[in-house]
UniProtKB/TrEMBL annotation:
It comes from Sistotremastrum niveocremeum HHB9708. InterPro entries: Thiolase, Thiolase-like, Thiolase-like_sf_Thiolase, Thiolase_acyl_enz_int_AS, Thiolase_C, Thiolase_N. The keyword Transferase applies. Keywords: Acyltransferase, Transferase. GO terms for cellular component: peroxisome. This is Thiolase. NCBIfam families: AcCoA-C-Actrans. GO terms for molecular function: acetyl-CoA C-acyltransferase activity. Residues 38-282 form the Thiolase N-terminal domain. It catalyses: an acyl-CoA + acetyl-CoA = a 3-oxoacyl-CoA + CoA. The lineage of its organism: Eukaryota, Fungi, Dikarya, Basidiomycota, Agaricomycotina.
């Protein structure tokens, strides 16, 4: 066992030892099981690839979606005719609804099953889960699929163009600036040093490398066949990252602010897809499905566009308050690491123990396919809760143009 892993296990020992009797009344209420609950019976993702040079760089979004759908239906044995609705979170592919619909049909889903696409930038995958969950809660559906997908190789962020009149408004202009600019603005506004950013980046890289070595991601990755190859592992994790190697990297945005953002302390640009199967609890029991988790709810907030990265600082307290929770009630937080500048500020402002946050690394180490991330966080967090035999997950991310989102999930695969 490595010294760093030993330190990590020692740090989380008090968390792992937490007993059911210590759970707050709010948590105990959320653990109650009702027939109308929205539950998760399947949650897996494709392997992820580095943009432009990774294993998915030549894979179109429709093919990636179709193969993930096909593999998921085979794994779950779900009759696709029983699906009431599908929502796909994605940001930049052209005609996303058309390609998503085509992918579903090619995967064997009947033409009677409707589909929608959702774009709320970095939270798009989470919004797909929320859309299906809300549809089930409203009685419009009993079984639904929520997906997140992005090929940042084939569909990089387009440059938003504003009319002259709109662009005169400072905040409107700020809302469409490159995300790297917002990273530097956060670093400048809150005095987040390059050293601090590299410190948090090293935590992410180290945890992800250890998780990869221990096979933790195998629990959340569904092998898929593409171009006659079976892909079953991320190619985005970079083992061997050190404080020295991070310190040696040049800034990638020297034209903005303090120029502290590097390729080592910013989220990776990547490709990938993920899927969550949701249904009413009584329907899951009727179908004989194993229940992995429960959807509780979400919160979405707006923040100053220039400081986009602070979104989780507003979104996490909002979702906790909505369900009567304290941050101490949450066992694991999955907070997106868009940039180490904003991640460091969020972690320290929220005052959450780092041992509870991204225990297997975050987007700095794993990569950040925009439409996928909200789904991946749910998949990764629920998988880790099962491993730890714990209950409560909070996911959160900053959202381009100046927003934040967060959600609460419950692990039901407890021993």
């Amino acid at each position: 066992m490595s010294a760093s892993l030993a330190r990590r296990l020692k740090a989380i020992a008090p968390i792992l030892a937490r007993s059911a009797s210590s759970q707050s009344s709010a948590v105990q209420a959320l653990l109650q099981k009702n027939a109308s609950d929205v539950v998760i019976t399947f949650a897996m993702r494709s392997p992820m690839g580095k943009a432009k040079k990774g294993q998915l760089k030549d894979v179109p979004v429709d093919e990636l979606l179709s193969e993930l759908l096909r593999a998921s239906l085979e794994k779950t044995k779900l009759d696709p005719a029983k699906i009431d609705d599908i929502a796909v979170g994605t940001c930049h592919p052209p005609s996303p609804l058309y390609i998503s619909r085509a992918a579903a049909l090619a995967a064997g889903i009947p033409d009677s099953v409707p589909i929608s696409t959702i774009n709320r930038l970095c939270s798009s995958g989470l919004m797909a889960i929320r859309s299906i969950a809300h549809s089930i809660q409203a009685g419009d559906a009993e079984i639904g699929l929520a997906l997140g997908v992005e090929s940042m190789t084939l569909h990089p962020r387009p440059t938003p163009m504003l009319s002259e009149g709109v662009a005169k408004t400072t905040k409107a202009n700020d809302a469409v600036q490159p995300m790297g600019w917002t990273s530097e603005m956060v670093a400048e506004a809150y005095g987040i040093s390059r050293e601090k950013q590299d410190h948090y980046a090293l935590i992410s890289h180290t945890r992800a490398a250890e998780a990869l070595q221990r096979g933790f991601f195998n629990d959340e990755i569904l092998p898929i066949k593409l171009s006659d190859k079976i892909l079953a592992q991320d190619d985005t994790v970079r083992p061997g990252v050190t404080a020295q190697s991070l310190a040696g990297l040049k800034p990638v945005f020297p034209q903005w602010g303090p120029a502290t953002t590097t390729a080592g302390n910013a989220s990776g640009v990547g490709d990938g897809a993920g899927l969550v199967l949701l249904m009413r609890r009584d329907r899951a029991e009727k179908e004989g499905m194993e229940i992995l988790g429960k959807w509780i709810g979400s919160a979405v907030v707006g923040v100053e566009p220039k400081l986009m990265g602070v979104g989780p600082i507003k979104a996490i307290p909002a979702v906790l308050e909505r369900f009567g929770l304290e941050k101490e009630d949450v066992d694991i937080f999955e907070i997106n690491e868009a940039f180490a500048s904003q991640f460091a500020y969020c972690v320290e402002t929220l005052d959450i123990p780092i041992e509870k946050i991204n225990p297997n690394g975050g987007s700095i180490a794993l990569t950040h396919p925009l439409g996928l991330t909200g789904v991946r966080q749910a998949i990764t967090g629920l998988s880790e809760l099962r491993r730890r035999n714990e209950s409560v997950l909070c996911t959160s991310m900053c959202v381009g143009s100046g927003m934040g989102a967060a959600a609460i999930f419950i692990n039901e695969a407890r021993r």
